[in-house]
Fold:
Amino acid sequence: MQSKNKQKMIQRHIWQDYLDVAEDLRHYYEIKEIYEKRKETVEHVFADAKEKHWMRWTTLRGLKKLSMQAMLSFAAQNLKKLASWTWRPPVQGGPSTT
Structure:
C-alpha cells in the first residue's frame, strides 16, 4: 500500500536515541572490562540465590510473603559475604610453637 504523498514513514521508539548511545558505549574497552567483572560478581550472586536460598521456586503466595522471603534470603547472603570478608584463614608455614 502506498501513501498519497509517496513518502515512507519510519517509526522509532521514543527513547531510541538513548538506546543508540547505550549500544555504542557497550563497545568501549572500559565497559567491556566491567562486563567481564559482572560475570564474577553479580551473576554469581543471583546463581547463589537460586541454588542455595530457594529463589528458584516458592510455595508462598502474596507480595508481602514473597518480599519477606527475598529480604531474608538476601540478608543471609550479605551475612555470608560479611563473614568471608572478616574471617582470615590461619597462616600456613608460620612459626612453630614447639
Remarks:
- The helical segments are 16-25, 29-40, 42-52, 63-86.
- The chain has four helices and no strands.
- Residues 16-85 form one domain.
- The radius of gyration is 25 Å.
